[in-house]
Amino acid sequence: MRGVIDTNVLVAGLLWNGPAHQVLGAVRSGRLTAVTSAALLEELDAVLRRPKLAAPLRASGLAIDAIVAKVARISIIMEHPPLERSASRDPDDDRILALALAAKVDLVITGDGDLLVLESFAGIPIITPGAALSRIPF
Q: 29 lies in a domain?
């Protein structure tokens, strides 16, 4: 099973316990193959540098560069063409949809309401981490 994991899920999974953390566990165990892009890795780096995440990062003992490198190592990194026309309420989310389409993933895992409201894109389910856990094989 292959999936695009949105940045908000990566951050939640790296810094806190819960469904997002379990999704990352599925990636580490090989039950889920994560697909990402250079742009999404850059976004992850930028989000992790936000001041509001400084305390959780310190508590985790993880360095930002090491986190981004680890996500890159456990993911398939591919580039993709942009969508021909916007499909999301937030045009920034179109890159996630474009990646999902190009990578022919089984699902998009996100906590972003602008994506979740779509429910699916080109037949690819867009679901929360909790919903993803029921679909990832054990």
A: yes
Write the CATH number for 119: 3.40.50.1010
Distance CA 6, CA 52 (A): 19
Q: Which domain holds residue 26?
A: 2-133
* Distance, CA of 123 to CA of 108 (rounded, Å): 11
Does residue 138 belong to any structural domain of this protein? no
- pLDDT tens per residue, the chain (138 residues)? 999 999 999 999 999 999 999 999 999 999 999 999 999 999 999 999 999 999 999 998 989 999 999 999 999 999 988 888 888 888 889 999 999 999 999 999 999 999 999 999 999 999 999 999 999 998
